[in-house]
Amino acid sequence: MFIIKKIKLPAFLLFSIVLFVSSCNQKPQLYGTPNVDIATIQSQFLNWYRYDKIYIDLSKDYHALNSNSEEISKEEFLEELSMAKYLVVRMNSAENTTFYKLIEIPEDGNKEIGNQLAKKADRELRNLKLLNKPFPDFNLKSLKGNSYQLSQFKDQYLVLNFWYTTCGKCKKELPDIEALAQKYKYRDIAFLNISLNEVHTLNNYLDGKNYQVETLPMNKKYVLDSLSIRLFPTYLIIDPNKKVINVSNNSRQLEKRVKEIIDELN
After folding, report:
1. Are 218 and 195 in contact, with CB atoms under 8 Å apart?
2. pLDDT digits over 49-92, tens only?
3. SUPFAM superfamilies under this entry (predicted)?
């Protein structure tokens, strides 16, 4: 018969064990302090604008923190940002993880910062509604007479560029889409330009422009009502499972998202 005796540990050793167990149960801090002096970007609109352009990209995947540093959903984050009362800062964190935090703009702060971010938030909220949904199959003929269906892009990612000929930003970014498509032409990603214009309008506009990315006319009412795309240009990235995995509205953001996909495939 074994007799188990109680062992009395010295107080300092007992304290060390408790401290060790407690530290093991705590979640590691995934982010640190803001990567900018908040007072600096609040003081002048230009300071904020430069910072925001470099460090804040609301079209990417990120962890969202409210003004109390509590993690919230991306939708909640954007809804609060749309109130024009906050600016956004990036928190120091691991290279492959992004944390954005809401910082309340003081009463005597620059209200134009909040207004500009509110517009961005409204745009991203609309884009968010398109995410993680299956994209409907289509059967369209390009200006060159080639037929395209979504179902033919097996084991490929597909970028759809929704645009029209009287949209200044759309026209400005068409060469960017062409360059991006040529850069990754031998990778598992394809590009199509989807236009709301009639065939004759497109032919007139594209005459003399040697774009290799094919342009496909699509019914305007279908794009606006059925697909719920209201901002132009809108870039959708569709994965091999025919699901929308990213929505953006400028070619710079799109290029970053495409590069992230290519890096994952490597």
Report:
1. yes
2. 999 999 999 999 999 999 999 999 999 999 999 999 999 999 99
3. Thioredoxin-like
Tell me if 108 sits within 8 A of 96, measured CB to CB.
Answer: no
Tell me the fold of 139-265: Glutaredoxin (3.40.30)
Angle between helices 111-128 and 74-81 (to 10 degrees): 140
Least Cα distance to 265 among 156, 151, 134, 153 occurs for 156
Please state, in angstroms and rounded to a whole number, the distance separating the CA atoms of residues 58 and 133: 19
Domain-wise residue ranges, the chain: 31-128, 139-265
pLDDT tens profile 193-203: 999 999 999 99
Specify whether the CB–CB gap between 162 and 234 falls below 8 A: yes
* Tokens (6 digits) for 197: 């214009």
Whether the model clears a pTM of 0.70, i.e. scores above it, the answer is: yes
Q: Can you give the pLDDT at residue 11?
A: 55
